[in-house]
Backbone:
């Protein structure tokens, strides 16, 4: 894993000291709230519904055990003993007090972490495939490039006051687990003609009020051209992006309004102008970063006891069926640890859970953890012979739920339980769906399904790309939930379609149940997943299940 | 009246020439005027949250202008390093802003050459 | 005919703690919605809001929220404001933690 250079270390420390000064100046009155807001946002500090919220970056979702322990310590010392992992590979603390935040930032710096650029109209935390460096299907580990981009974008003097926020996601695999087509810039590792690895650059994706799937601006950019190419894109966006209307300020609108051709021409021209400024030092750094991400020393050992434990223990078997993904090293597995125990808040981890995960990563996982955009924790390198012991240990803190990829593995933003922007709650909707389908015993029967819930149009809960998307709105002073169907967050990215009028809060679970019972009735066989049935039959049968009264009337 | 900020702190306006050029924040690069002969270029910052001026400064420098380049308007002390790194020589602020953010807050970022990731990646 | 004015309270977040606060009739800030001043007159509401906004060293983001009279004092109307008087629904944190009800 990457370790801070002296440069990183002194940068983060200096920045922490600057922020301490800014907080002091806000409290003394030297800074007005209008001036302090963008500064605190650039350091991840929001003012939410009930309290401040500190959003800490977990660059490309990678954490060491020591870092995870420190996140637990921060939760205990300055917050309420837990943290919330988000769809952008951040952790959020929901209850910090303003005078404490500089101390929290110092504690983060102690383990090479920060909250820089987790908010504001700037380039945000760079996200990556949560299976990076482990996945069997990977062309290359995307984290070195992501780390290079982190360094380039951090404190970039030109790009701290962009028209709007700017998100970059990177995947090293053809199977996209990082939703790169829904980012302002998405990067996908590809092999060029000569076998050289470069990146396909996708621009103008995004969810929110105007969801759009990103388009390829250049199918292949050599690694040595990548930073100047990104700089060219953001530079053109900084001047072209609209500043008169914040709902039209994201790059997806800039590309849409100007057309991809004109936008590409401007980017290419800018690229030619600034390319010579990059003399190749970044590639020397990249080599060093790549060396830091060298895979751990995998052990070559028999998978002792793994199959036997599966045969003997149905609970273990069902957990391995849902939680494991293919690792590139023989004998190893990628373990996804569910933070979605039925009835729990999606993405929340208590400090005790964080400490256990840190210990288990050290004991069984080469000291590495990942945070997925699906709000779970990943132990990327676990030898199969260790899985029974790992599973037993996870159970002690309620971390062994066998529901990865199922109906209760729901993405949910904090919604109106915390967020000042929210128009309705999301967390209790997720909790109720999860407990309901467990209670009626249909979870396994339903199989693979992605439900994603957002508490407002900004779509932090990725509802547009859920197989079933749920969007909470305020309709005349009452919570109301719109359902979209057919979204997809993978390389086949698709925006789901709204199927009809919204549902009252207490009608959401019954509506989802009708929908899923209809799926069970009409699927070709057990192997056909919800999204496959939806693609085969289209929205009509699902619409009829959601709105039975209307279906009856139409039939009469 | 306004205050001019440089690495050594506050100064009174000391430009008395007649070859200055004003650049509005919504100027596109292809519309930048010919700056040959100019001895002061003032790029407007209508609001500190409007970062176009930083990109414009880079374009102006890239076009070969090496004279005095000033960021003028609502720039705050915390942006001083960004302005200097983008190619500005100095910042012009209102008296009101200068009284709320006195010279020490600007001098704090006079170390703008230190801790510069982007410079490190290109040099 | 002028539209009837919906009664309001002035609410904000405390600068240091971040928690939800309300302006009282005697110009204090309270954590308890029931102690807020219920403002029945639009001109007075604007005046009180200005007073609140001027307190830059104490409060952040002051605004007027709809409210209605209740047996123990003003009560919130919109669900967002009801949540703000309590705290989140997934844990008994926020005002629920300290309340004696």
Residues:
């Amino acid at each position: 894993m990457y370790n801070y250079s002296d440069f990183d270390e002194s940068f983060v420390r200096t920045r922490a000291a600057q922020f301490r000064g800014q907080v002091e100046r806000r409290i003394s009155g030297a800074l007005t709230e209008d001036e302090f807001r963008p500064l605190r946002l650039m350091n991840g500090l929001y003012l939410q519904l009930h309290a401040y919220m500190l959003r800490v970056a977990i660059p490309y979702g990678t954490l060491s055990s020591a870092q995870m322990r420190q996140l637990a310590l921060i939760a205990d010392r300055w917050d309420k003993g837990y943290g919330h992992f988000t769809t952008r590979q951040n952790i959020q603390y929901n209850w910090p007090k303003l005078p404490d935040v500089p101390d929290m930032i110092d504690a983060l710096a102690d383990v090479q972490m920060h909250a820089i650029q987790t908010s504001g109209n700037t380039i945000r935390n760079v996200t990556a495939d949560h299976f990076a460096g482990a996945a069997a299907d990977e062309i290359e580990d995307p984290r070195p490039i992501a780390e290079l981009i982190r360094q380039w974008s951090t404190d970039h003097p030109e790009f701290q006051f962009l028209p709007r926020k700017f998100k970059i996601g990177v995947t090293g695999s053809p199977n996209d687990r990082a939703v790169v087509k829904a980012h302002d810039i998405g990067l996908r590792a590809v092999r060029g003609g000569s076998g050289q690895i470069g990146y396909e650059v996708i621009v103008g994706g995004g969810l929110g009020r105007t969801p759009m799937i990103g388009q390829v601006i250049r199918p292949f950019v050599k690694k040595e051209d990548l930073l100047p190419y990104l700089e060219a894109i953001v530079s053109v966006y900084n001047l072209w992006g609209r500043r008169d209307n914040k709902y039209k300020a994201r790059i997806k609108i800039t590309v849409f309004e100007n057309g991809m051709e004109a936008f590409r021409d401007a980017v290419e021209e800018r690229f030619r102008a600034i390319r010579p400024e990059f003399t190749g030092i970044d590639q020397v750094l990249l080599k060093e970063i790549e060396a830091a991400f060298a895979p751990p020393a995998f052990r070559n050992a028999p998978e002792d006891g793994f199959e036997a434990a599966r045969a003997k223990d149905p609970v273990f078997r069902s957990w391995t069926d849902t939680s494991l993904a293919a690792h590139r090293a023989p004998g190893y597995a990628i373990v996804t640890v569910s933070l979605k125990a039925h009835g729990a808040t999606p993405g929340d981890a208590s400090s005790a859970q964080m400490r256990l995960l840190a210990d288990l990563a050290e004991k069984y996982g080469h000291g590495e953890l990942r945070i997925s955009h699906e709000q779970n924790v990943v132990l990327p390198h676990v030898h199969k012979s260790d899985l029974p012991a790992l599973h037993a240990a996870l159970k002690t803190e309620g971390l062994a739920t066998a529901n990865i990829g199922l109906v209760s593995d729901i993405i949910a933003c904090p919604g109106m339980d915390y967020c000042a922007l929210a128009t309705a709650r999301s967390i209790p909707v997720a909790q109720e769906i999860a407990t309901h389908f467990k209670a009626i015993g249909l979870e396994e029967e339903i199989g693979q399904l992605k439900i994603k819930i957002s508490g407002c149009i900004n779509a932090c809960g990725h509802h547009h790309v859920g197989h079933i998307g749920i969007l909470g709105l305020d309709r005349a002073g009452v919570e109301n939930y719109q359902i979209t169907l057919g979204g997809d967050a993978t390389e086949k990215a698709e925006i789901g379609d709204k199927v009809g009028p919204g549902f009252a809060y207490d009608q959401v679970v019954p509506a989802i149940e009708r929908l899923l019972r209809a799926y069970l009735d009409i699927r070709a066989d057990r192997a056909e997943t919800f999204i496959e049935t939806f693609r085969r039959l289209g929205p009509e049968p699902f619409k009829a299940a959601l709105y039975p009264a209307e279906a009856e009337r139409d039939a009469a | 009246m306004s205050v001019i900020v440089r690495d050594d702190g506050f100064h009174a306006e000391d430009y008395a020439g007649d070859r200055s050029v004003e650049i509005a924040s919504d100027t596109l690069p292809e519309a930048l005027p010919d700056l040959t002969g100019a001895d002061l270029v003032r790029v407007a910052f209508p609001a500190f949250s409007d970062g176009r001026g930083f990109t414009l400064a880079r374009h102006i420098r890239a076009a070969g202008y090496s004279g005095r380049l000033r960021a003028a308007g609502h720039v705050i002390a915390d942006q001083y390093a960004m302005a200097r790194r983008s190619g500005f020589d100095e910042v012009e602020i209102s008296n009101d802003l200068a009284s709320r953010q006195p010279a020490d807050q600007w001098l704090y970022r006079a170390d703008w050459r230190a801790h510069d990731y982007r410079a490190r990646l290109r040099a | 005919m002028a539209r009837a004015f919906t009664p309001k309270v002035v609410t904000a977040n405390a600068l240091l703690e971040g928690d939800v606060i309300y302006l009282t009739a005697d110009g204090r800030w309270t954590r308890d919605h029931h102690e807020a001043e219920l403002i029945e007159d639009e001109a007075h509401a604007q005046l009180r809001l200005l007073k609140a906004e001027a307190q830059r060293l104490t409060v952040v983001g002051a605004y007027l929220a709809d409210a209605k009279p209740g047996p123990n004092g003003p009560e919130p109307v919109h669900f967002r404001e009801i949540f703000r008087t309590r705290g989140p629904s997934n844990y008994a944190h926020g005002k629920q933690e300290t309340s004696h009800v």
User: Anything to note?
Assistant: Chain C has three helices and five strands.
